[in-house]
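Researcher: We plan to redesign the surface later, but first we want a full-length starting point. Tokens attached.
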């Protein structure tokens, strides 16, 4: 999966002269948290994020009146609070490498550049959505994790076990922890009474099995 497969191409941007108030209203209107800053020549010159806007607001302990605060923020320009230079990526960058860059640099988004033209933006929300898709989140079926031998053919054997039980693999990932190899698979359509003993019969340790994965969605507060 590449950045171009998950990036947002409907771009909403601001100019360096855009005010704090205008940028805040844009974020609220479009339910976004990142605004690329584009100059009059069409060049990317910075990015302003929700945290930048919040940091620029007066402290709640300020003695300024609400009218004075609005007056200040209506004059404060994006150029004064934006982050620059900006970390960027390209449409053909593997999604996991873009995510790695975001983690390493502590940013929540990367403008996507094709040469010097901005063609999209990839955000942490896009990464989360890709992860949900890769793991089969939201789809019915069993989810299981196996500790397996780190050798060729293991994944194929597990997938065949799912198929033999009438299931179709809809999400899969392989990962490592403390030098041990694991496979997590989400399947759809398998006969669980047939699948579970077949998993136990594999040359692997069954770490976790859930016939109907569900998370408590209770709200607090």
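Model: Full-length starting sequence:
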């Amino acid at each position: 999966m590449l950045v171009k497969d998950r990036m947002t191409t409907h771009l909403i941007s601001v100019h360096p002269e855009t005010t704090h108030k205008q940028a805040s209203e844009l974020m609220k209107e479009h339910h976004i948290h990142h605004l690329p800053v584009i100059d009059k020549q069409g060049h990317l010159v910075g990015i302003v994020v929700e945290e930048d806007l919040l940091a620029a607001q007066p402290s709640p302990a300020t003695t300024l009146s609400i009218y004075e605060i609005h007056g200040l923020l209506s004059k404060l320009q994006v150029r004064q609070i934006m982050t620059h230079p900006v970390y960027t990526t390209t449409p053909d960058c593997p999604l996991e490498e873009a995510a790695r860059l975001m983690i390493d640099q502590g940013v929540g988004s990367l403008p996507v550049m094709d040469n010097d033209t901005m063609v999209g933006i990839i955000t942490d929300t896009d990464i989360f959505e890709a992860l949900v898709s890769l793991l089969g989140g939201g789809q019915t079926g069993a989810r299981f994790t196996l500790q397996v031998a780190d050798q060729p053919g293991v994944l194929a054997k597990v997938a065949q076990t799912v198929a033999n039980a009438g299931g179709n693999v809809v999400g899969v990932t392989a990962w490592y922890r403390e030098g041990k190899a694991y496979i997590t698979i989400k399947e759809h359509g398998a006969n669980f009474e047939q699948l579970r003993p077949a998993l136990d019969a594999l040359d692997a340790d069954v770490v976790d099995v859930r016939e109907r994965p569900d998370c408590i969605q209770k709200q607090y507060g």
